[in-house]
Specification:
Blueprint lengths: L2 H8 L6 H5 L25 E3 L3 E5 L8 E10 L2 E6 L8 E6 L7 E11 L2 E8 L6
Antiparallel strand pairs: 1-3, 2-3, 2-5, 3-4, 4-7, 5-6, 6-7
């Protein structure tokens, strides 16, 4: 698919339900969104972490910005959590733990996906020993 054909699809008109009832002889691209029923989710991997963590951005335009992650898990050198705000993928962060038994460490935001409860964030920890 070329960029030109993508632009044609992107600029296609949105059709409402009432317009669907009318007969049309034109062919148009259509995307159907299906809301699948809730299926049992697989068990989450990793160890749960009590409390929250604070991520502080260490570079770029957002240097110094701090946000919190909650619903934490650690697995295979990665920290998984939920945030109310988006975090740019690739951001270098320092991680401050609410749990005093953990040591602050650095990491890189590997993934930020929107979810119904905010953003699901994955941080690749710089050192597996820090987790």
């Amino acid at each position: 698919m070329t960029n030109a054909s993508i632009a044609e699809y992107a600029s296609a008109q949105v059709v409402t339900g009432s317009e669907l009832a009318e007969e049309s002889h034109e062919t148009a691209a259509c995307i159907t969104i299906i809301d699948l029923p809730a299926a049992p989710r697989p068990a989450l991997k990793g160890d749960p972490v009590t409390g929250k963590v604070s991520l502080m951005m260490l570079a770029g335009e957002e240097f110094g910005r701090i946000l919190e992650l909650e619903d934490l898990r650690i697995h295979d050198g990665r920290l998984y959590g939920r945030s109310r705000e988006s975090v740019p993928t690739g951001s270098i962060v320092t991680i401050g733990w609410q749990d005093p038994s953990r040591t602050a460490c650095r990491g890189v935001v590997a993934l930020a996906l929107p979810s119904s409860a905010g953003w699901r964030i994955t941080v690749e920890l710089e050192s597996k020993l820090a987790a």
